[in-house]
Fold these 4 entries.
Entry 1:
Amino acid sequence: MALAEDKVREALKQVIDPELFVNIVDLGLIYVVDVKEENEAGLHDVNIEMTMTSPMCPAGPQLVSGAKNSVEGLDEVATCEVKVVMDPPWTPEKMTDEARDHLGIF
């Protein structure tokens, strides 16, 4: 059964930034979700490219491991690789309206 990118993004919403208390999807930190074709066991490998709000984000390692664990927790996933990219740089415009409202950014 094919795994939809939307399902992966929903799983990633379980990962909450410990400083901002908003999930990494609504913060706009997830740039790429690449779901590979299923293997012989019917499982998918998933590659994610994500960024941080700043290059020295203290929560970076926690957010990366949280992303990997949440996606690998899906029944359809074999492995998840998370790559942190800084280009393009993150800006508040990448956040959803809900995240901006939560943080009081207009």
Entry 2:
Amino acid sequence: MRFLAFLLALCVGEVFAEKTNIVFIIADDMAWDDSGVYGNPKVRTPHIDRLAGEGMRFTRAILTCSSCSPSRASIITGRYPHNTGAEELHWPLPGDQTTFVELLKESGYWTAAAGKWHLGDAVRDRFDEIREVDTSGFQLPAGEAGKTGKFAETGKGDEKSGCHEWVPLLKARPKEKPFFLWLAALDPHRPYDEGILEKPHLAEDVRVAPYHLDTPEVRKDYALYYDEITRLDRFVGLVMAELDAQGVADDTLVLFISDNGRPFPRDKTSVYDSGIRTPWIVRWPGHVEAGTVTAALVSAVDIAPSFLEVAGLETPGAFEGRSFLPVLRNPASKGRNFAYAEKNWHDYEDHSRAVRSAKFKYIRNYYHDLPGTPPADAVRSESFQAMLRLSKEGKLTDAQMACIISPRPEEEFYDVEDDPHEVRNLAGDPEYAEEIEAHRKALLKWESTTGDRVPGLRTADEFDRERGTPTAARVRPRLSKKEMVAKGLAAP
């Protein structure tokens, strides 16, 4: 009997050895183009650049939401945020949602997570091990939110990056099983600290977006954001080095993305490309040719079915994405015709939807009576406070006013190839009427097919829209969607 068990163990081990390991790395609030390999040489990212040099870099990768927890809930379930039960910030993912992680686990993978969690308690059992970063000690005192402080005074070291358990977790994995790792950073999320690098980025070297003010204060804000990207980059390099040291790098698929855009005005929480476009790098030796670049359009909702296909598993019917593995086999393929994104409550109420093709973007602002206020930590930043001051003096451009003005356009349409910063709204231009209508119909079809609708009840703002200070509606811990619906605080 013991001999038969031994033979069975050997056979299972051989099957497991044939499975591809998967490492999924998620930056927190990193713009798609803020790395050397994506065209910003001012940000020092040697390890991310190397990852791209050894794999495939996607230039048209789109997130389903530019908001931290809804974006992650969408990725792990392979569903659009409005179908996860966790479409608003801090809503925990319900336990009745199927994730790709438990399917990997059931097939023999060791599944583990380290760093930022942000998915709630109901799906913790989908992982064999979770090393969650306690972020409570990283919050600034009341009245200090949004300000920076000397890193040496925090005493947090690399723990504040959210990445310090990545390599220890990789070292602790059981060696007889294939593994899936969900490695989630806190970098480059606000608040920022000075002095985290021996050689910090210089304010005069940053690249300021045309819809932001170009002032010394804003440049300093950018430079601190760059510093956190470089700190994150170091941990990407450490993970790659550990895979090499364990001799499993050639048997491991690594995917690097960000959960949403830069935490600045008109970036994070917006459905502009600065919010929903993500770096997307795949390294998979033997399957992906080193140094390749693809312009194929892919969506974050496609990650779950792709990982399942890598593991040789079927994709559940409830998943709404499709595998992007055909792009890995043929980088010249076009990928999707359309990618879809949504904006829901994130500190402030909003409801916007977007559909993006390779060349165009159509946006529908259902709550166009509200301004496109950025997240509260960005509201408190000097980058936004300076914009508010100058807006009252009439000194901002139309693009800089985009997240302040109300009412805002009900419809927006951009040529994202010719106008990558989306500052020229073509919605009323008859030259683009045919394309506008095609994208409008595509969005309406997607809304109908996925059961998306405008809520009958708006969730209250938790912060003041000009100061970023808490309102009476801010209560922690935040209720789940089910609890809020039961109390009449959210629409079912």
Entry 3:
Amino acid sequence: MLGKSFSKVLGIVKTALLIFSLMFVLSLNVVAKNKYAAIVIDGSTGEVLHEQYADAPRYPASLTKIMTLYILFERLKKGQLNFESKFLVNRHAANQPPSKLGLKPGSRIRVKDAIGALVTKSANDVAATVAVNISGSETQFARLMTRKARSLGMKNTVFKNASGLPNRYQKTTARDMARLSMRIMNDFPKYSRFFAKKRYRYKRRSYRNHNGLLLTYKGTEGIKTGYTRASGFNLTTSVKRNNKHLIAVVMGGRTSRSRNARMIVLLSKNLPKAVSIHNKVPLQQRMAQIGRPAKTYNNGVLYTASITSKKRNSASKKTKILSKRFIPNGFRSLGQGRGYAIQIGVFDQRQLAVKQIKRTLSEVGQILKNRPAYILPSTRRGVAIHRARFAGFFSRGRARQACQNIKKEMAVNCIVTMQ
């Protein structure tokens, strides 16, 4: 009897462990399966110019170090530290996995060098060293980071370490990272200049900044890259060009190159929509505006231009003429046949819809071979909208398959609709 009871208990324990393991894996997949997220903020007003999955949970990876630096900059600003202050390296910090400087237990590193190493090399041993010297332990520092995140309005962020090394409980969102990027560039102009450094020298070695946009995109002033297998390639960027300022976040890129390319597209598309930095509003108003999502429609696709009251009035006057389908130059007519279409975006300007059609063809043209493109204009709540579509699918199944293939290759919200 005792043997049977023991076997029964053992079976229950095994089942419980199996269920727990399955739940653990599923909890990872909630964040890791769909990695992409993006947001673009007008740095002068806080207005959200573009967003996609901006509030979905994501792993921050080394974007975590922005908060580590924020807390370090606070200590500098308050006079509790200076650039020549030295941090003691303990065994815990020295044992952090790469990327790292290779600090030895018992050695010391100046605050100035710690900042340079975090920004350029993204050194994990340096991040842990900062944490231990400020809070006594990295665990205590992570709690301080989370409290600071709440005070900055980062409601969906939890930190568990100072570096961004994998931890399934450490999470954030693109919107929260935009908030943090806005604040660190605004609150510490004296120290945030470190983010613009293309290289940093430490002990006769030169470390190149991982942020390639500093070399390839005019006006980039930082701020941070990040990567883990679960997060994909992340990037937050601050750009000032033509008296305009943008803060942008891209998360979950497949490669650093594709992530940078996506960031450049978002910056270039949204810079014309930003207001002049001479019209900058107070920080409190900007931070409040970041919390207001961009306009969305029932299909979940976001359009990216800001809408003023003047535009609303002019759009309502044009309601009667927005009834015919628009065929972009170079595309053939739809003809009279019925069938299915796929929609790849909704925009408040027709030219943006045309650009999306051409971009889609340039990236996944083989999927849409011989499919006529058109733009369906209409209005919603008195605002003109333009739906970018490809027609010519004679079964819902083929249209659905095309959508799935496009989603794999591009960051678009593709849906199937009637032609």
Entry 4:
Amino acid sequence: MGQCNDSYSAIKVALALADAFDCSVNDLPLTLVLSWYEQKAVCILLTLLSLGIRNMYLGPTLPAFMSETVVKYLVDTYNLQPITAPEQDMDAILKRG
């Protein structure tokens, strides 16, 4: 949906779609890529995790405070996917369907 400042709008749209289709946000065929360029992304990520949003992509580099243990927990619990280069990431996303 654009800038990270649009995250609230993306959440509202996803919640409305889930309500319209009588399912959870995680059941929708949506992909959320949280680009990590500024510290405000921490708040956005924590908000999404607190809402139980799963299957997000985070990158292109992970925040320095995320230890290997934290990343493993987020991957295992929320299926958070670290991303790298756009070409590799698009290939991976398309293969997952």
